[in-house]
Every structure is written in C-alpha cells, then in structure tokens.
Amino acid sequence: MTADDRPDIIFLMTDQQRWDALGVQNPLVKTPNLDRLIQSGIRFPQATCQAPMCVPSRHSLMTGMYPSQNGVRSNESATPGDDAIAAPVLAEAMRDAGYLTAGFGKTHWGRTPETPSTRGFDVRVVGTRDLGLEVGAIGWQEEDDPEGRAAYLDMTRGYGPGEEEPVGYLGATSTIPTRNHPDGWIAERALEWLSGPDLDTDKPLFFYLSFVKPHAGHNPAAEFESLYDIDEIPDLEIPPWDESRYDHIRVRDENSPFLGARSQRWREAWRALTPRERRLATLRYWANCSWLDSLFGQALDRLAVRGRLDNALIVFASDHGELLGERNFQFSKYCLYDSSVRVPLVLSGTAIAPHLRGTVDDRPAALVDVYPTIAQAAGFDIHPGAAGASLLERAARSGSFAEMHEPAPAWMWRTPRYKLILFVDPSTAGAQGELYDLRADPREWRNLYDDPAHLAVRAELMAELVAHIATSFAAAPTHGALGAPPALPESTAPAGTLNDSEISHE
C-alpha cells in the first residue's frame, strides 16, 4: 500500500471483444477471472463505444471526447501527431496528477515518426504488430525474440491486413508457444515489470494492460480450444433478408471498394463452409477470450502480491465489438449494430462501495465515461472538452451516442429500448434511417424507420440525437486541434417532440 491514499488504477483492455463474450453474459464463454471481477464490481451491459473502429474509439476513450470533438473520425485518416492530440490523454493526466504510469500493449493513439507513443507513460512497452501508428513497435519483439516473431508471422501468413481475411477468421490452432504471440510477449513483459523495483514507491499506480486479441486472426492455443465443445456452440442465425437489403452496411460497402470487396469475400467463403466449420470460428474467438482472461488473472495475482489491489479501482473494457458472421456473414465492426457497437464495461476493486459490488447498472453508459470516472477516483479535474460523466455518480443520460465516418457518415442514438441510426447515402438526397425496438427485436432485423406506428418514436429519438450533438460538442478541448461537430442533413430534423408522458425509452 502506498502512502498516498488515492486508489491505484488498473485498466485492463482488449480489442474487438463482444459485449456478450463474458461468462456472466454467456455461460458458454469461459472467463473466470473477469467473472470474479464482475461479481465484486459493477457491470454496465448497455455500454457502447463512440465509434466502431479502433483508432477513433481509443482516441475517444483516452481523451474523454467524441470523435467529432477531437477530430479523429476514422482508422485511416486524420490521425493527429502525438503532440497534436486534441486533449491530454488519460495516461498524461494520471502522470500530471502524481501517479506512476505504466502502459503495456496497444494504445493506437498518436503518431510519431520512429518510435511508439509514450505520451503520459513513465514506463511503456508496446506490442509487436505494426499498426501504422506505433511504427517502432514491431522492432521490440524482433530484438528480444526474433525467432518467436518470425514464427508468428509465418503462422499468420495469408491472414491479410489486420489478420481479417476469411482464413484469418476461420483461423487455426496455434502451432507456436503463446509467448511468441504479440499478447503473450506483452504479458511476459508486464509480469516481469510487476515483479520489479519500480513498484517500490509511495506513488499510486496507473497500470494499463491492453491486448490485441480477440481481434482476428483466430489462432488460440490448443489448451484454450479444449475448454470448448464445438457441439455446444450454435450455428449462425440467418436473417430473412440478404445483402441486397438497404441499410447503412450496404451504403458503407458501396462507397468503400476495400470494405465492399472484403464483405463479398466473407460471404462467399462462409457460404461454402459447413455449419461445423462456421462454429469453429466462434469457438476460436471465444478461446482467445479465455486466453486473455488467464493473462489478466496472472497480472491481477501479481498486483495482489505487491499490495496494489488493497486500494484499487479496476476497469475492464474493449474498444468495440465483433459481428462474428452475423447479418449474412458479416465480420469485423464498421457498423452501428449492437454486436459492433456494444462493449463490455466493468468497474471493480476495493474502490467500489460495498453495496454496489456485484450489481448491474443498466444506464446507457459509454466509453467516453471512463475518463471522468477514473478522474474522480484519482482526484483530478477533467479537461473542459471532456464529454462523458463519471459512472461513480448517479447522473443519467437518456441514451448513448456513436458515430461513423468511414466511408459514409452515420450516427446512432441508442436507449435501452430503441435504437435510431441516421446515415448519408451519397447517391440520394438527405439522410436515410433505421429504427429498431431492441426489446422486441434484439437482433435488429426489422427496420421500423418508416413504420407509421413508430413515427412518434422516431421523432423523439431524432430530437434527442440533435439535442445531444448540440450540447455535447459545444465544449472545446484545452489544446490541440478540434474537429467540427457533424452537420446532420436537414431532412433529419424532427417534425415534433413528445413529452415524457407519451413515450418511454427504458
């Protein structure tokens, strides 16, 4: 325990983990360590990311700002240099507040010419996958374990960009030791550091451990595949429509040669598979979740031995979800449906009040809330541009917001009951829309946008969306470039609004 009475902050993060890829949410998934955290903490099952892709989601989480506030709206463009990020990232704020800051694994924020971003971290070790933003990362494992790195590259040859070609999603049982995987290498470095002398300090600790799985490719070790029985895994549900259905995924694919061609390859490959082969992809995805769970458990055990869980707030989250073959064999993210935009979000540790441990909070939480939540626990003020609210308070919003700008603009307003999606099709005038009753239709198969019985609901959700954008994007960050808020097409303006007695978005 440190002399400082502020809690240590332990931030555990994954990449592309579905909101339901947890044992407490799906009993088929084996995540015992995260389940224990949840049982002694607060789970937020309605939580969403603010952009369903890595770079804007992580910038949003780590700055506490929406993508259209900080200007980072896509994976491939407009990513600021490390010194031009729109606001202090979380690690920087923690260090300025007097914390010892240690970051292990993927951040995917900032851009530096030769080395990975260390902004805010006293200790920084990155993964080995060259993501274009952490340019020097690939050399770290090559220098430490060149044979292991070469073995991983050989095993994943043919998986394609981001390991997301069909063969990457089908995957294979790993043929190399887990320590040679990027996440295995990062975990070893983190465990070594947690056993070292740096923790012999009176400073409180901000420890960030972030893995690149369960993002494709799906190549878990046999010991984690063996946790699952393929006969217990359900096959994909096929919706009563095909890819000709008009929605924002179709508009996305029609306006992105890369995404459109990849979607077609996914469909062709998956239609050629047997149901058992399709289930195998799900099994391997879950097996990677189980592997990461075991790595988190090892890190938490090491932190406990060092006394760093005696007074701690533990946060677990992922940056976005994964479609995993849903909606006629769609994979990855890049859309505003729940499997892509909902995320696991958990607060745990001794910093959680005893009466809140083991509870479920059904408020429309969001990743943009993580920054102010940690700020409150650590005792520092958030910057003026922060858009979220501390989840340690009881303040509530009526819904959660997400946006997508790659390749065509789309916006989401989601309540626990309904979801509105507005999107722009360059081939038509004005905005198009989707509306779903999440209680009656959790798979989001039936679009009610033009249903006469739901026009009042649509108008109310539009009013809430416009009001949210108008108020949330008004504040400016303390430094750096500020992106302009999105301009909604004129045709999205609601015809009228309803009062609380007329409609409920529970």
CATH class: Alpha Beta
Count of spatially separate domains: 1
The chain-level structural class is alpha/beta
Strand order of the largest sheet: 4-3-5-1-6-7-2-8
Biggest β-sheet description: 8 strands, mixed
Top keywords for this entry?
alpha/beta, Alkaline Phosphatase, subunit A, 8-stranded mixed sheet, 16 helices, 506 residues, 31% helix, 13% strand, disordered C terminus
SSE map:
Blueprint: E1 8-15, H1 32-39, E2 42-43, H2 54-63, H3 67-70, H4 90-96, E3 100-105, E4 123-125, H5 137-144, H6 146-155, H7 166-170, H8 182-194, E5 205-214, H9 222-225, H10 248-254, H11 257-271, H12 275-305, E6 312-318, H13 326-329, H14 338-341, E7 345-348, E8 359-360, H15 370-378, E9 400-404, E10 410-414, E11 418-424, E12 431-437, H16 455-472
Parallel strand pairs: 1-5, 1-6, 2-8, 3-4, 3-5
Antiparallel strand pairs: 2-7, 6-7, 9-10, 10-11, 11-12
Task: Describe the protein in words.
This protein is an alpha/beta fold. The protein has a single domain (8-492), classed as Alkaline Phosphatase, subunit A. The protein has 16 helices and 12 strands. It has helices at 32-39, 54-63, 67-70, 90-96, 137-144, 146-155, 166-170, 182-194, 222-225, 248-254, 257-271, 275-305, 326-329, 338-341, 370-378, 455-472; strands at residues 8-15, 42-43, 100-105, 123-125, 205-214, 312-318, 345-348, 359-360, 400-404, 410-414, 418-424, 431-437. Strands 4-3-5-1-6-7-2-8 form an 8-stranded mixed sheet, with helices on both faces. It has a 4-stranded antiparallel sheet with strand order 9-10-11-12, with helices on one face. Helix 5 crosses helix 6, helix 8 packs parallel to helix 12 (275-305) and helix 10 (248-254) crosses helix 11 (257-271). The longest helix is centred in the middle third of the chain and has 31 residues, at 275-305. It is globular and about 65 Å long. The chain starts with 7 loop residues before the first strand and ends in a 34-residue tail after the last helix.
